[in-house]
Amino acid sequence: MIDRLIKKIEETQAPIVVGLDPRLNLIPKHIKEEAYEIHGKTPKAAGEIFYRFNKEIIDTIYDLVPAIKPQVAMYEQYGPEGMEAYIKTIDYAKEKGLIVIGDIKRSDIASTAEAYSQGHIGRVEIEEESYTVFNQDAITLNPYLGVDSIEPYIQNCKTYDKGLFILVKTSNPNSGEFQDLDVGGEKLYERVGRSVNQWGAQLIGKKGYSQVGAVVGATHPEQAADLRKLMPRSYFLVPGYGAQGATAEDLKGYFNQDGLGAIINSSRGIIAAYRNEKYQKQFTEKEFALSSREAVIDMKKDLQRIR
Ligand SMILES: O=c1ccn([C@@H]2O[C@H](COP(=O)(O)O)[C@@H](O)[C@H]2O)c(=O)[nH]1
């Protein structure tokens, strides 16, 4: 996965992942009205709305970026209809050649992690048949339960060429509450970073990076520079740019000298760009996807300044 991701980053010259986090209040009226007319104001309509919205965005940005990151919470809240939209979004993005990072943040004891791993990055078996359910290339995980909770995923990374991004230093304002605690002379996030680096050492790709990467929030540049040194071969998945306030200037220390090592996420900043005055001057609400395209182009230019 990591070599495929790096190849696409090099081809597009865009270390960008577009977060597909649809919310009904961020979706253009015409899409909602058409779905409500057919399905009523139901979870079925929500699923249809999300898929149509995502598809139009994917169609408009797939040539510019290497990857998308659907956030499972947005879909899961609507039950099976929401999850159907999640799966359809993944499959469509893959058809368009995009790498898909499922933001699922799972964590559980090994025997349960095994089931998550099979469903999300492996294959599930039903008697003598086996199926791919969620065809993601990589997923996000929470490391709180320790290495035995991560091992079932590492096995599937080897078998199926998949990737992991493990929470190391998250972007939220209270991330320091536990992650910055001193644990024997270092911060907890540093301790986790060392472990992630070690877990990934067995999965280094041709380009020198591991299939096991880290989530490092764009809102903590000092900690990121520290982690960059501790975990030179881990790819960083970096949320927090745009809507959460981080800027390109904050991101310099997330990349290695080779210009690689980080992929920056923007979700609301791209999918809701049509509500931004800057793009409203060029495009109508019905042309929301063109606003998203323009926002990706602007983000790419912004990141080029610091790489
Ligand atoms: O530390 C983290 C880990 C994950 N996220 C996720 O990234 C996106 C950010 O969305 P924006 O709209 O660009 O703020 C969202 O899916 C989060 O769940 C994060 O923000 N921070």
From TrEMBL:
The active site is at residue 105. Keywords: Decarboxylase, Lyase, Pyrimidine biosynthesis. It comes from the Bacteria. PROSITE patterns: OMPDECASE. InterPro entries: Aldolase_TIM, OMPdecase_AS, OMPdecase_type-2, OMPdeCOase_dom, RibuloseP-bd_barrel. It catalyses: orotidine 5'-phosphate + H(+) = UMP + CO2. This is Orotidine 5'-phosphate decarboxylase. It comes from Alkaliphilus metalliredigens (strain QYMF).
